Amino acid sequence: MKASIALLLSSLLAPAYAGTYSISHTVLPTGFLDFFEFEAIADPTHGRVNYVNKATAVAQGLVKKASNTSYIIRADDKTVLNPSGAGRNSVRIKSTKTFTKHVAVFDVHHMPQGCGTWPAIWEVNEPQWPNGGEIDIVEGVNDQGPNAATLHTGAGCTMPASRKETGTPTLLDCNANVNGNAGCGVKFPTANSYGPAFNNNGGGWYAVERAPAGIKVWFWPRHSTTVPAGVKNGGSSVNTDNWGTPTANFPNTSCDISQHFAAHNIIINLTFCGDWAGSVYSQSGCPSTCDDYVNNNPGAFSKAYFDFASIRVYE
Ligand SMILES: *[C@@H]1O[C@H](CO)[C@@H](O)[C@H](O)[C@H]1NC(C)=O
Ligand SMILES: *[C@@H]1O[C@H](CO)[C@@H](O)[C@H](O)[C@H]1NC(C)=O
Ligand SMILES: *[C@@H]1O[C@H](CO)[C@@H](O)[C@H](O)[C@H]1NC(C)=O
């Protein structure tokens, strides 16, 4: 009796559960761009892309609020490109704020699709790469699902082969300087986590938790019966302890998270071809060559867009 009262008391008096976070940023279609700045930079991954600035993106309709529940971020789908000129106009946006311990929830209706596309939702400290770490939440190329979540770090961060997660690990060394910067990835179990299958299913929710004890990524398809209420409804706080087994789990067993991960920006980018999408283009069953296809077929990129309902950050 006494023991159970003591237990009850200690649980009532406990300061906060490890997995509890409070809302710090709500990014909705109205005011969506206030959270971001544009990176009109040369693509570090050598893609057939021309990242434009905010004025150009707005003027060309590459970023726009489509409704209260829909913010569009897209590539140009109208222009035939001069093969010796700049790549296809597209957008790379980066949060002005940085985050350490946090949860981010992305409610996504649609992601870019089409041969040659290489979209990503990720977190990084660009000046300190790779020693400041990189967390790829959504990434893939040429419509090839499923999604993979991947960490890239400096030397000395590895993942155990066996972990509590629903996805399947690929490589275990997160060190960007080995294995051609493949990083330590986890392949998601369901095709509807990426590309056309994701879009045909109405998208879904991606969430990342970064804490000293580890990094976790969850994915719930749009009609999932297990999506937590706080995720679905955009709650004012979330408790990741109640979210079930993560899709990808990167524990700190043999990777000191605080040492390998600096303060991160959230980045959303869409490039074409380049180091990854270009190098596996023909294996993906795509026509012609990647650069030629991107140059000559603007209409093939009518679905090369993200559609976000919201992004919420909890700290
Ligand atoms: C886009 O995102 C990925 C992260 O997955 C990153 O490695 C890559 O450098 C970015 N590509 C471009 C073109 O900015
Ligand atoms: C969109 O939101 C605004 C205020 O945030 C509201 O006045 C308007 O009625 C909403 N429109 C729709 C179609 O829900
Ligand atoms: C892992 O995280 C826990 C909880 O934050 C911490 O107590 C422990 O020291 C960490 N271990 C390593 C190897 O970083």
Automatic annotation (TrEMBL):
Going by the UniProt record, its keywords in alphabetical order are:
Glycosidase, Hydrolase, Signal
Domain of life from the UniProt record: Eukaryota
By its UniProt entry, which PROSITE patterns does this protein fall under? Answer: GH16_2
Q: Which residue intervals define the domain GH16 in the entry?
A: 21-285
Coiled-coil parts of chain: none
Q: State a single Gene Ontology molecular function.
A: hydrolase activity, hydrolyzing O-glycosyl compounds
Q: Which Pfam families match?
A: GH16_XgeA (PF26113)
GO terms, biological process: glucan catabolic process
Q: What protein name does the entry list? A: GH16 domain-containing protein
